[in-house]
Write a structure and sequence with these properties.
single chain; about 240 residues; 9 helices; about 80% helix
């Protein structure tokens, strides 16, 4: 690919990134969310936050090797479609059974696996500690809204620069980023997780799982591809 084409693609991805961030900022609370505001138990949000944070910890500590194996095996296959469908089925079945929270570790692994696939395709080492922090912040940013989303995106780009330009070691704790990503996920899925815990309407939770995954995956594709092209341009001034 010649430099002019790389520049065009880099700019196109930058525009798409702005569109995604702007779209998130303009979204209004759903009708379902408004109707359920007073019915959701106060402790559910804390329960979801803790469940997602623990799920990140479990996957990073014990599951990355297993996920890496499936990422390598599925490279070049129809990962986007199959993962979205699998997550929909997993969430829907558990929802119908009235199981809202126990599916979170499985779902978290699917989310991370999706991002790992994108990172590997773009030439990034997702097992690196700094890259794990980047991935967690990417999840948070993809689900954030308004000015906060822009702030997280700037932080995300600074971390990418430190990793790619300066090869700066990462000495921070991943716990903070796990908690931030967990909160973003629980905020985005809170109302559907409440529905998913009610057997009669539980199938709606499966739809929420798939929609959230698609949102995270699309943002990850744009960020990683733009980062990839940015690094290519630096290597070919």
């Amino acid at each position: 690919m010649i430099r002019a084409e790389m520049v065009r693609e880099y700019k196109r991805l930058g525009h798409e990134e702005k569109v995604l961030l702007s779209k998130n900022g303009k979204k209004k609370p759903s009708i379902v969310r408004k109707k359920l505001e007073d019915k959701i138990p106060d402790k559910l949000e804390g329960t979801l936050n803790a469940a997602f944070a623990k799920a990140f910890e479990l996957v990073f500590n014990y599951g990355t090797a297993a996920i890496s194996k499936t990422v390598s095996e599925d490279k070049g296959k129809y990962a986007d479609t199959t993962e979205t469908a699998a997550t929909f089925m997993e969430g829907t079945v558990l929802g119908i059974m009235g199981v809202g929270v126990p599916d979170i570790p499985v779902y978290t692994a699917v989310v991370l696996r999706s991002i790992y696939q994108i990172a590997e395709d773009c030439g990034f080492d997702y097992e690196n500690k700094a890259e794990k922090a980047y991935i967690l912040m990417l999840i948070e940013c993809s689900l954030s809204k308004g000015e906060y989303a822009l702030k997280v995106n700037e932080e995300l780009d600074r971390l990418a620069s430190e990793i790619d330009d300066h090869d700066k070691p990462y000495y921070g704790l991943l716990t903070e980023y796990m908690n931030r990503a967990a909160k973003a996920l629980s905020d985005d899925m809170l109302y559907m997780k409440f529905i998913q815990s009610v057997p009669v309407v539980g199938a709606a939770g499966g739809v929420s799982n798939a929609v959230t995954l698609k949102k995270i995956r699309r943002f990850a594709e744009v960020k990683y591809k733009r980062r990839q092209f940015g690094n290519m341009l630096k290597q070919h001034p």
